[in-house]
Amino acid sequence: MIYLDNAATSFPKPKRVYERMDRFLREEAANPGRSGHRLSVGAESQIAQARNVIAKLFGVEHPERVIFTLNCTDSLNIAIKGVLREGDHAITTVLEHNSVLRPLHSLEANGKITLTKLRPNSDGFIHPNDVKAVMGPKTKLVAMTHASNVTGIVQPIREIGKLVRETESLFLVDAAQTAGVIPIHVESDFIDLLAFPGHKALYGPPGTGALCVGERAKLFPWREGGTGFDSESLLQPIRFPFALEGGTPNSVGIVGLKEGVEFILEEGMDKIRAHEQGLVKQLRSELKEIPSIRIYGTQDVSRSVAPVSFTVEGAEPQEVSLILDQSFDIASRAGLHCAPLMHRELKTFPQGTIRLSPGYFNTAGEIQTAVRAIREIRSQIAV
User: Fold this and answer.
1) What was the pLDDT predicted at 223?
2) Residue 54 contacts by C-beta under 8 Å, 6 or more apart in sequence?
3) Contacts of 150 (CB under 8 A, 6+ apart)
4) Looking at the domain assignment, is residue 200 inside a domain?
5) How many domains does the chain have?
6) d(Cα 41, Cα 22) in Å, to the nearest integer?
7) Which residues, in sequence order, are CB contacts of 15 under 8 Å at separation 6+?
8) Rounded to whole angstroms, what are the CA distances from 272 to 5, 115, 223, 248, 305?
9) Does 138 fall in a domain?
10) Whether the Cβ atoms of residue 173 and residue 194 lie closer than 8 Å to each other
11) Could you report the per-residue pLDDT of 169-202, keeping only the tens digit for each?
């Protein structure tokens, strides 16, 4: 199979991820931090090392403020529901994944908060001045994606973060499509809360993610339970990371995530980014030559990441994706991509688009094969 669905989850993973997880699960997988024996202490040490490498990747000064979660959705829920209280105002955008939209809309629907959703300009970008224009004394949170999972357009988070930092509001960034591909530094980018999955461009396994919590952010925990720390207290500890990490962690997954991040640090993010940019540029350029194909997003690959969404005139996106899979052995994704407001903005609702998302382990030859397949599908539709 030619796998072009890396925006959903990266595949394959670096070999070292599989090998390390297998060895850990067979030989080291005691409950971390819950006991004093060497296996438990060793497992806790592995998790601490994972915090350290993630902190290094994202410029987090205090590694204990890297909170391990189930996935990016979990991270976003911890952030949103941990920050917002009755009477608060939040700002987001129509670019967002449902992992941002649904918790915010739920709070709004229940009368807890007021919510403003910003639209991008004609080029697909959110302008910092548009954020500033809707901020008020009750604005507690600005939550936005770093890059759309539909168009791949990368937003100017540093400029927006700097603006938010001048207020009492907090800045939450959903880095689901950018963590591991584009350099992110929580201090330089003025990010208070950085949410990301482990299973996408960080090359970790499913069921992993993290939330980096800046010191300005005061979060109320909504998952409470055992931590192996301060066990005599009947209340959740306030000390990080225990405050937001109730329950036994996915230690084998976290160890796999650590290997993925170390792969990035050793391989070099610039090299990874350059390879993916080359594939995206090739894909956009070759798709553009096919009649009756409409491509969304920007041709400027320096301002986008891997997702390339398009439609084929006269064909349903789901139909094209199914043919790619069954007739050409090419994995893609079609539909709304859990981003309904983005598709309304693009006027592709409710059918959505076909999305191809190359990754570091794809090749130029695979892109050529995929484009030839789409050209053949298009020709058959024309007939």
Assistant:
1) 81
2) 60, 63, 66, 210, 212, 257, 258, 261
3) 95, 296, 297, 307, 309, 337, 339, 342, 343, 346, 353, 355
4) yes
5) 2
6) 19
7) none
8) 17, 37, 36, 33, 11
9) yes
10) yes
11) 999 999 999 999 999 999 999 999 999 999 999 9
Q: Residue 367 corresponds to which tokens in the numbers above?
A: 């892109």
Q: Which two tokens stand for residue 309?
A: 């969404």
Domain that includes residue 187, residue range: 15-267
CATH of the domain at 115: 3.40.640.10
The domain boundary residue, chosen from 267, 296, 314: 267
Report the range of poorest mean pLDDT among 169-178, 223-232, 252-261, 341-350: 223-232
Residues 168 and 294 in one domain: no
Q: Is the N-terminal amide bond of 12 cis, ω within 30° of 0?
A: yes
Take residue 298 and report the two structure tokens written for it: 């920007």
Tokens linked to 324: 């790619």
Closest among 103, 200, 108 to 146, alpha carbons compared: 200
**Same-domain pairing of 312 and 221:** no
What are 133-142's pLDDT values in tens digits?
999 999 999 9
